[in-house]
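FIELD: query
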Amino acid sequence: MSEFDLEVTLREITKENLRAVLRLKVAPHQEQFVASNAVSIAEAHFSPEVAWFRAIYAGDVPVGFLMLEDDVAQQAYFLWRFMIGELYQGRGYGRKALELFFAHVKTRPGANAVETSCVPTEGGPRPFYEKMGFVYTGKDEDGELVMRREL
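FIELD: result
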């Protein structure tokens, strides 16, 4: 079995896997685009009413992290954080993880779309998000482009 055939899963972050998730880093030139996993997990713990977060695994190896802003009251769903560790990029894990993420969001009340935002800079994640079906909404939020994907 090649690394490209490994099953991708979204798993809860526990005391057993926390350190491995915290060690995941994007490439240095990507650091401007996404907060560290430590910052993301801390923010999630201070927003438990809306934060749903998971480690992205390929087989038994943590390869990334994602977080949903899960606002059931407003029926608004936002890909708050998404990262694949530098050593694991380009292997299809991000695409598979977002497919699982979209399937999860579809189970939420009134969910018919998910939004995200990204820095409109060379080397940013916009092309990847576009390949995953996100389109620019015309809105900007704190200097980031807001993108939307219908579910």
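FIELD: remark
The mean pLDDT is 95.
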